[in-house]
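TICKET: design request
STATUS: open
ATTACHED STRUCTURE:
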């Protein structure tokens, strides 16, 4: 049973101050640690190991959360993480959300090298080029995980993978698949092309239609989707690197799709085509 009283009662505690600083990118980079908020993220972090080393280092929990999520707290302790019971005020001070869920983990960086991504010879990859919004980045990572992609690459022009909003938006998917960060888009494209991976840029103004690509049977091979900034898409020099620039068709009256929705459609289209034994009909067929 947890102690009746929390051990951390002041936001000025050195442990709390150190955790709070991880909301800032320069401190995350210096310590190579990041925040994972909420029960789902802490659960996934407790189960994750990289090169034999546990990813979860520390957990802060309210007494109520420790009781409600006793299995997660137990898994955290089993993984070797230090668990601190804290006042609600302390958790609110560490958390970057408006309504904290009572659990915050501190995790080691877990990104992998781009070279290791290539060694695994992935068949489906999401490349985030010029994606600046952390919520979009985390949601695309979640979509890639759900669609069965083997890797995600964040280019050097994209948002920090460990931004708290990106971590939350991934809803634990950050811990499920290899993610390479800081890779120049030219290097990412060249490395994947050398493996025989087809590079497809997703752009609302693309020359090719996703339905037509599916009907032609061009989506069944190894594919890397390149996604750009939601507001202005992909720059011309990035589009020029792709084997095809594909748009998601708009059959109704909507002006456009947001980045994460378009990414989900594209990644699932590739996943279906790759799994099909003979061809693939349009994803819009009923």
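STATUS: resolved
RESOLUTION: sequence designed for all positions
ATTACHED SEQUENCE:
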């Amino acid at each position: 049973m947890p102690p009746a009283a929390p051990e951390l009662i002041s936001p000025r505690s050195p442990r709390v101050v150190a955790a709070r600083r991880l909301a800032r990118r320069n401190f995350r980079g210096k310590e190579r640690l990041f925040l994972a908020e909420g029960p789902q993220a802490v659960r996934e972090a407790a189960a994750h190991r990289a090169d034999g080393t546990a990813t979860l280092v520390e957990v802060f929990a309210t007494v109520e959360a420790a009781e409600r999520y006793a299995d997660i707290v137990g898994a955290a302790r089993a993984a070797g993480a230090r668990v601190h019971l804290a006042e609600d005020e302390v958790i609110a001070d560490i958390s970057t959300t408006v309504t904290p869920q009572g659990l915050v983990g501190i995790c080691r960086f877990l990104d992998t090298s781009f070279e290791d991504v290539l060694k695994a010879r992935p068949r489906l990859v999401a490349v985030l080029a010029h994606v600046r919004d952390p919520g979009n980045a985390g949601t695309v990572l979640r979509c890639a995980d759900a669609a069965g992609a083997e890797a995600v690459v964040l280019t050097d022009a994209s948002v920090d993978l460990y931004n708290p909003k990106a971590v939350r938006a991934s809803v634990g998917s950050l811990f499920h698949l290899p993610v390479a960060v800081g890779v120049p888009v030219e290097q990412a494209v060249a490395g994947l092309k050398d493996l025989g991976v087809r590079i497809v840029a997703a752009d609302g103004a693309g020359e090719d239609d996703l339905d037509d690509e599916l009907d032609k049977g061009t989506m069944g091979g190894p594919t890397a989707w390149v996604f750009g900034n939601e507001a202005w898409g992909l720059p011309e020099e990035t589009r020029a690197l792709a084997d095809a620039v594909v748009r998601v068709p708009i059959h109704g009256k909507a002006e456009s799709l947001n980045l994460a929705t378009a990414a989900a459609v594209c990644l699932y289209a590739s996943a279906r085509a790759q799994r099909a034994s003979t061809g693939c009909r349009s994803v819009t067929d009923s």
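CLOSING REMARK: Residues 277-286 have pLDDT under 50 and may be disordered. The CA atoms of residues 98 and 181 lie 28 Å apart.
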